């Protein structure tokens, strides 16, 4: 019975987390790093747009954020590939507060999400 109560509590906590509301922003701010030169660049992208970050092409599918923390808990769906090549280096959700959880694996460049573009942050 004790395990049942613990399982029920975990299920309830998971359900509450899954039901937290998020909003989609019209775009995102991404940061790129050239690990060789140490140069960084911030790039503003609109959802559905592709752009270049150093030698990488980056496509932003969506940027979502919780209304209670719009600039801190953003997560964006990115597809990243080397310029002129078709093989994807990264395709998935990247989390602004924990970029290492699902990171781009590239020898020279790094790209991560800074925040979503929101009505209050524009």
TrEMBL record:
Superkingdom, natural source: Bacteria
Pfam families: DUF2155 (PF09923)
Signal peptide: 1-18
Record carries keyword Signal: yes
Keyword annotations from UniProtKB, A to Z: Signal
Name of the molecule in the record: DUF2155 domain-containing protein
């Amino acid at each position: 019975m004790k395990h049942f109560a613990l399982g029920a509590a975990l299920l309830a906590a998971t359900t509450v987390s899954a039901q937290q509301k998020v909003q989609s922003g019209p775009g995102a701010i991404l940061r790129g790093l050239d690990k060789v030169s140490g140069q960084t660049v911030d790039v503003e992208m609109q959802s559905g747009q592709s752009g270049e970050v150093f030698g990488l092409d980056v496509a932003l599918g969506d940027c979502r954020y919780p209304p209670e923390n719009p600039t801190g808990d953003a997560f964006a769906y990115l597809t990243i590939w080397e310029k002129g090549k078709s093989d994807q280096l990264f395709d998935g959700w990247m989390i602004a507060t924990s970029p290492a959880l699902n990171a781009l694996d590239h020898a020279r460049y790094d790209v991560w999400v800074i925040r979503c573009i929101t009505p209050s942050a524009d």
